[in-house]
Specification:
The protein is α/β, with parallel strands linked by helices and about 425 residues long. The protein has 12 helices and 18 strands. The protein is globular, with a radius of gyration of 21 Å. The N and C termini lie far apart (about 45 Å). The structure holds iron/sulfur cluster (2 copies).
């Protein structure tokens, strides 16, 4: 079977400080959970409960405010004891409900009721996905209902793409989920396809995970919607929208498939769609890769949303030394965490703490003109030149082409913050 790969740049990425994808432990339920009212790209939800109120597991506690906002739910039963605000590393202020766990769990440990969805009209499925606050769980966290809304005037055929691409060892949690909840991932893709009117589903699977791909395909073939599998490279950033679309267009051309518009969703999002529609359940927990050179025991954990990141590290044996950086996501792309009381949220596919010397915490020196950054840029940019222009606040029109994959920054022997500076420059509208 042919493996499709984006044509230029990229890196093979390994990180010994990332956890193994062979095991997963379930984290303790949080005695105190912190439920932020923004857990995704976009605007804050409005709280619908107040201090002193009792909440049940899965109850709506924040209502999304239109486009780019998503509903927020309590993940444990308990009492709202405080509302806290803090400034995140990007300068944005977030508010969160602090819930002290008490009372009975309505779902945990109980047999789940199953709700048939096959005969529901697409608009009702989309409404369930919106009601249960489903957002993309691996990327920026765009609300999935907004993705459907964006398709409303699209006349192209739609192909649903299940992105099982593991080009980064920090996606170990997604890999474990894909394996443990394979049926839910497949059924979630069928549900998403029906909601969006897709007539075909493609499972895009990393070359090295062909066996997992074949299992996904065998399960998917028990459903009526036509499916296929395409093997793609494991080179980072193969999972990015642009690089994945490139290879899927190559595949479509070779197979004479009219793919049309592509709706790309990762396995955690597909499982969440399954839970929202089939179980009428919001996102209560997620698989998280926990590790980094400062952490005593790296491991994949199934963690309740709202669990404090400090509690997650404590369950991994704590720190071997004071971390230089704590963040969520991959070490080179992560969002810095300013306080160990910040919680795991819907998009936290990884949390890490690193000592000086690991990727992302090194001192920058001068450019030595080695050209490595140009070699790895998948877009064909000259990151060194763009970085110079951005630093000089000069006109930098090509900066908007950068999709902030971070490849240039990872390979730069001078540890220059290339990607961050270029992305900031693009954001200023240069
Ligand atoms: S310039 Fe942008 S697109 Fe190119 S490698 Fe750097 S971050 Fe990636
Ligand atoms: S990789 Fe770093 S040191 Fe090498 S040319 Fe690019 S900016 Fe300069």
């Amino acid at each position: 079977m042919k493996t499709y790969s984006f044509p230029q740049g990229g890196i093979s990425f390994d990180d010994p400080a990332a956890p193994s994808k062979d095991d997963c432990v379930t984290a303790f339920l949080p005695g105190i959970s912190i439920i932020p009212l923004i857990q995704h790209t976009g605007s804050r939800a409005d709280p619908v409960v107040s201090v002193g109120d009792h909440v049940s597991e899965g109850m709506l506690v924040g209502r999304g405010q239109g486009p780019l906002s998503a509903n927020i739910h309590a993940t444990v039963p308990g009492k709202v004891i405080r509302v806290v605000s803090w400034k995140m590393a990007d300068g944005q202020t977030n508010d969160a409900l602090v819930i002290r766990m008490e009372g009975a769990f309505e779902r945990l440990g109980k047999r789940e009721e199953l709700f048939p969805w096959e005969n529901l009209p697409p608009v009702e499925i989309q409404q369930l996905i919106a009601d249960f606050g489903i957002v993309e769980m691996e990327g920026s966290g765009r609300p999935v209902s907004d993705m459907f809304y964006a398709l409303r005037s699209d006349r192209e055929p739609l192909t649903l793409v299940a992105r099982c691409v593991f080009d980064d060892p920090w996606l170990a949690g997604d890999y474990v989920l894909c394996r443990d909840r394979l049926k839910a991932v497949v059924e979630g893709s069928m549900i998403a396809a029906r909601a969006g009117g897709a007539k075909h589903i493609v499972f895009a699977v990393s070359h090295g995970e062909k066996d997992l791909g074949l299992e996904l395909l065998a399960e998917a073939e028990t459903w009526k919607t036509p499916v296929s599998m395409v093997l793609v490279s494991s080179r980072y950033p193969q999972r990015n929208q642009r690089e994945l679309e490139l290879v899927l267009r190559m595949y479509g051309k070779k197979e004479s498939l009219e793919l049309g518009t592509l709706m790309i969703l990762g396995p955690a999002t597909l499982a969440a769609i399954h839970d929202a529609v089939k179980l009428k359940k919001p996102i209560l927990d997620r698989y998280v890769a926990v590790g980094g050179s400062a952490v005593r025991k790296a491991q994949v954990m199934k963690v309740r949303i709202g669990t404090r990141i400090g509690d997650v590290f404590a369950e991994c044996g704590g720190f071997v030394d004071n971390p230089r950086r704590i963040a969520t996501g991959s070490p080179f792309l992560g969002r810095t965490v300013v306080d160990l009381d910040e919680p795991v949220i819907k998009t936290s596919y990884a949390v890490f703490a690193i000592l000086g010397g690991q990727t992302g915490v090194t001192v920058s020196r001068s450019c030595i003109r080695c050209g490595e950054c140009r070699t790895v840029c998948p877009v064909g940019l000259d990151p060194e030149e763009l970085y110079k222009q951005a630093n000089a606040a000069a006109d930098c029109p090509r900066a908007v082409e950068c999709h902030a994959c971070g490849c240039c920054e990872i390979v730069c022997p001078s540890h220059l913050p290339l990607s961050a500076v270029i992305a900031a420059s693009a954001g200023r509208g240069d």
